[in-house]
Amino acid sequence: MSTAADPIIHALRSGHEELAALVRDLKEDDLRRPSGASEWQVSQVLSHLGSGAEIGLATLTAAREGTAAPDGDFNRTVWARWDAMSPEEHAAGFLESNKRLVEAYEALDDDTRSTLRIDLGFLPEPVDVATAARFRLSEFALHQWDAEVAFNSFAAVTPEAVPLLIEQIGGMLAWTSRPQELAGRQATLLVRLRDPERTFGLRLGEQIELTDAPEQPDGELSLPAETWLRLLVGRLGPQYTPDGVQVTGPLTLDDLRRVFVGF
Fold it and tell me: What are the boundaries of the signal sequence (predicted)?
């Protein structure tokens, strides 16, 4: 029996192994390098992922045990402890904390993966394991890129994660975009993704939203799906933009970069 959570949990394991292989060899100077997250060093990215894994494990454990989910006070205590760590402690802590979270997801049997409901604390109601794991994958895969691009300017979001994330990225637009950067301009673009192929619309105006593919778009945006993910979360600076990204119509790629500031 397979469940909707299976490929997501597998992608979490693959991502952990890839990033852990890099982190194990990092020295203090490496950990202090600027990351792909504009205001963070590599060690701070690892701190964010490690503390998030600790909170995620506590949340998953509470759901399995039928107890109250961790609250804001718990989260703040975790963040404060990680903030006080050295860069080397961030790296070591990430390796252990994220490993434990991935193992906890892997330990769920098929029935639990299908029936368990998890209170993430920021949604109106508890969600299934697949949804909770996908939220973690979204956070992990993009911050994995933040760490890896510090050492490889050609780094890309892990291919295994890309098709699992493009289906939910539209739900983040209110958080990752700044419509005011359009200065009142409006446009609807036809978006064509590659690897995997997808076609839909992107409406830009007072609100930013995805739509069905428009019959008469104002322009077209064509790019790899991996690149699309990074554009929407503010990680497509000129130095990180691959060949083959094309924009036609009233908006430029720089306009889109200004709109999608990410996190």
Answer: none
